[in-house]
Amino acid sequence: MDFGLSEEQEMLQETVRGFAQNECPTTRLRELFDEGNGHDPALWQALAEMGVAGLTVPEEQGGAGMEFLDLALVAEVLGEFALPSPFIGHSLAIQGILLAGSEAQCASLLPALASGELIASIALQESDVVWAPSDWTAKFEGDRLSGTKTYVSHAKVADRLLVGVQGGEFVWVDTKAEGVEIEDLGAIDRTQPMSRVTFTGAQAIKLEGGPGTASGLLDAAAALLAADAFGAASKLIDLDVAYSLEREQFGQPIAQFQSIKHTIARLGLDIEPARALYWYAAHALDHLPAEASRAASIAKAHITDRAMNAARESVELHGGYGFTWECEVQMWFKRIMVDRAIYGTPDEHRDRSAALGGY
């Protein structure tokens, strides 16, 4: 099977990469990281003007009409630059609407999201261990929503939230509505700020798709987080190489030391082959639905685990400087920590993939 990127997909990544290099170099990233709100309106507006906000929205609803793999390719680049933006939550909210919304709901809700006029996010997880649809406890009765969701990315800048409720269904909520309370959790990764959101009789709109769509959205989340972590881990390896060529000991760059060379080479061999896992998972979401859930869990488990190992090794390769706030490694380290933890840990996704495979 010849599974590679098309010329258009390679161009998409290079376009987004060029934008990130120009608009969010490490100096600007540091400023945004220190500010801690994980959002630069000018950056988001520019991404929206490039079409990134609505990549998978059909053209008739104002989007680019592209596939989920294209979305994952952009997630990789944004992870590579640790770009502070609501991209992942926003994209997953769109995916949820595409999965569960009626034709009329899609036509009503998607255009403002595709243009970036409105920012959305998803609210699914309820605790460290409650993320699967079968465990959701938030209730939707009549047109009112009650319950609490935690680890909601960019909730404070989002205009709308896609919320998972009992029965594995979704409702659509205005974050400014009465009965919606957003509490900052002070997440360790300042490029992906997390909040606890409490709903006390907040008015909401139920999406008309059945409960079977919830699993599809969690598969999409797993694939995007894997792509983001892959990009972040790849960046850390680049930082390791650059530092080893610059740092000197005993009158020569530490890159000359066998232990350093072997460590960086091993990290490259850990990370680079894993690229195909998120590619396949994203491809399966559009074209191989019977394989999508297992492929997404395998990608999330393996890539985020290997990325976390690369982050730990990168801290060590940077020596006593590596764990400090001043060292740029910590920004990617923290991003990978969040990618690994939310919507299922590697162990949980290994269990899920084994169960889906009949083991």
Q: What are its keywords?
A:
359 residues; alpha+beta; Butyryl-Coa Dehydrogenase, subunit A, domain 1; Butyryl-CoA Dehydrogenase, subunit A, domain 2; 3 domains; four-stranded mixed β-sheet; four-stranded antiparallel β-sheet
Describe the structure.
This protein is α+β, with helices and mostly antiparallel strands and 359 residues long. The protein has three domains: 7-114, Acyl-CoA dehydrogenase/oxidase, N-terminal domain (Butyryl-Coa Dehydrogenase, subunit A, domain 1, Orthogonal Bundle), CATH 1.10.540; 120-206, Beta Barrel (Butyryl-CoA Dehydrogenase, subunit A, domain 2), CATH 2.40.110.10; 213-356, Butyryl-CoA Dehydrogenase, subunit A, domain 3 (Up-down Bundle), CATH 1.20.140. It has helices spanning 7-23, 26-35, 41-49, 68-80, 87-100, 103-114, 213-246, 258-271, 275-287, 289-317, 329-341, 346-356; strands at residues 120-123, 139-141, 144-153, 160-165, 169-174, 180-184, 194-203, 205-206, 248-249, 252-253. It has a four-stranded mixed β-sheet with strand order 1-4-5-8, with helices on one face.
Produce the secondary structure layout.
Elements: H1 7-23, H2 26-35, H3 41-49, H4 68-80, H5 87-100, H6 103-114, E1 120-123, E2 139-141, E3 144-153, E4 160-165, E5 169-174, E6 180-184, E7 194-203, E8 205-206, H7 213-246, E9 248-249, E10 252-253, H8 258-271, H9 275-287, H10 289-317, H11 329-341, H12 346-356
Parallel strand pairs: 1-4
Antiparallel strand pairs: 2-3, 3-7, 4-5, 5-8, 6-7, 9-10
Helix pairs in contact: 1-4, 4-7, 4-9, 5-6, 5-7, 7-8, 7-9, 7-10, 7-11, 8-10, 9-10, 10-11, 10-12
